[in-house]
Amino acid sequence: MSPARRGAPENSGEADVEKEGRGTWRHAAFHVATTIATPAAYAPLPFAVASLGWPLGVCSLVVGTLVTWCSSLAVASLWQWNGEKHTSYRLLARVSLSMTRTLCFVEGPWGYWYVSFFQQVASVGNNIAIQIAAGSSLKAVYKHYHTADSGAMTLQHFILLFGAFELFLSQLPDIHSLRWVNAMCTASTIGFAGTSIGVTIYDGYRIGRKEVAYSLPGNTATNIFRAFNALGTIAFSFGDAMLPEIQSTVREPVRANMYKGVSAAYTIIVMSYWTLAFSGYWAFGSQVQPYILSSLTAPRWVIVMANLFAVIQIVGCFQIYCRPTFAHFEEWLNVKKVICKSWMWRLMYTSTYIALVTFISAAMPFFGDFVSICGAVGFTPLDFVLPALAFLKARKKPDNLGLQCALKLLCSSAAVLFSIVGALACIGAIRSIVLDVRTYRFFHDM
Predict the structure, then answer these.
(1) Which of 52-56, 126-130, 215-219, 424-428 ranks highest by mean pLDDT?
(2) What is the pLDDT of residue 370?
(3) Where does 238-292 have alpha helices with state H?
(4) Does residue 3 lie within any of the structural domains?
(5) C-alpha count within 13 angstroms, C-beta hemisphere, residue 96
(6) Would the keyword Transmembrane turn up in this protein's UniProt record (predicted)?
């Protein structure tokens, strides 16, 4: 056994990967765009830009786009090196984080568990945030048809209904069995982006422009923490914790096809993300809501469509992000060699997971806060820090000493800088959650 493998699970329960991928670069672009560009990623971007103001908001979004694009290319370049294929982030980290202590305090097998932790934070945090978003969208559709106050259903009712449906889908064995669900989700992503951007621009022209303010409300301390929170939101919007898994499905030449696929996906993401973020802030100014659909006013039937598109897309997104957690349960059962009906154990651990996520979502339905803390603690390490460290470890160094030093300085600086950004974003998100808990009671009907 190689030193890099010592201490990490030999059979870590990763999904079986085809020996030879069959997907084209177009398929890779499709998967990458679908994984990143979800309604929960689109919806908070105008609020994030509003929390930073025009100059810093535009710069942060542009930098986030460029850095994650480069990071994705770096991860794609490391899919096969050192004689091994690294078909998941955990397997890549097991080897690539066995580096010098001056860059990282994670050595050997600890890299596997380091990334496993952040993947779980990203996955669980993402599902809490998108379940709140799904409940909010279902409630918005309900309110369109039910105008009476008596006997009205609350946000918590819709969160529970969504959780029950996800529990049903969780009994399906793998992502492949969700292929028809994900096909509908992909179409819904396109529908959500188109309707949201269209209605935002329409509302922007209807609103008197003199009534829209772009100044940052509140005192200096409040604005600083809101800015920290916004950085976590932007990190969440570019979060992708499945890049090596996607690359495993691509045919030869794998790297070249993945480079083209990632670049094509980011072309789509730039067009849609930037358009919605900037048009949302332009239309509503500093009063834009953390969930952009809550700011839209007309036409009502189009807003209902956008909310339905959001719910359908979130159904599949939730399933994708709960699978890493289910894999850990299955690994534990395999290690313990538990003898019992597999469907019974699956029902037990999926029920436990769905119940926990649903409870947190219903108790603290603060969509923007969970988006920010998930981006800060989960996606920032995976998408901003890990790729820089892994690239520095794995890629062949230039022969020129000056270029070597420049590469080390660039990668090290990126890792340190975005670690600091992630810490600041986490502080801002925690502060927002504390303030919201003080302002609203638990299980508040937002």
Answers:
(1) 52-56
(2) 77
(3) 243-247, 254-284
(4) no
(5) 30
(6) yes
